[in-house]
Amino acid sequence: MLLYPNAKINIGLAVKGKRADGYHNLESVFYPLNIYDALECIENKNYHPSQSPFLFTTSGLEIAGDLETNLVYKAYQLLHIRFGLPPVICHLHKHIPMGAGLGGGSSDGAYMLMLINDLFELNLDSQTLAIFAQELGSDCPFFIYNKPAFVEGRGEVITPIDFSLSPKYFVLVYPDLHIGTKEAYDHVVYDVHSRSDFDQLILEPIENWKNNIYNHFEPYAVTKFPQIADIKNILYQAGAVYASMTGSGSAVFGIYDHLPSTGLESLSKYKIYIGNF
Predict the structure, then answer these.
(1) pLDDT < 50 regions, the chain
(2) Which residue range forms the structural domain that includes residue 140?
(3) Which of 90, 119, 210, 260 has its CA 20 to 30 A from that of 68?
(4) Residue 104: is it exposed, middle or buried by C-beta count within 10 angstroms (0-12/13-18/19+)?
(5) Is the domain of 66 the same as that of 187?
């Protein structure tokens, strides 16, 4: 069975403060993005006890870390503990940049839950899968539903928004600059009291977003890596109606009515992804 986990962008990201459990309360609009990994998994019918019950290979972008930290593996283990799954052979082709604020790893984990659910006919509904996804990571439940949503709490409170960016286009630039999650949170300025209202502001004309929809992680990211501000300015100069860093960085996206024919030449040294919503 083959599925294509997709990326997401944050349209607005407000950090509301640290929780007693060590996580942070957030407010953001998550929007699916048409950049994909490929995840394939089949039952290992030739399994031998000398093998691992989870055989995993990868291609594409290099994936850092041990197998035990990969959310695809964790998703399998989570359902295996509950349902006693058969051994599997899985392959992940990685195309979504990692450490970019695009949720690629979270998407892979969520899609693995859905893949296993279908492959072995576990008959779990979306709500149940989202509960399992929450155990994998804060962004994972969103990808179970995979529709534009206002996300609150640590990511588990998901309210769908009847909103679409079609037929607009995106230009996404990944400068391959790393900002650790802990580092990003250590330097963010909380906004504890006021509500972000991103779920309402996103329904206004996109031209209004520039002055009203913000990312709390962006100021520190720009201080550390001025290139992020440069990229954002270039996207605007090339005609973007809105541009922002996504997540805690470092990818920056621009939204366009029409794909720019010029103006992006200076960004050629970075990884650029262009598509439609």
Answers:
(1) none
(2) 2-160
(3) 119
(4) buried
(5) no
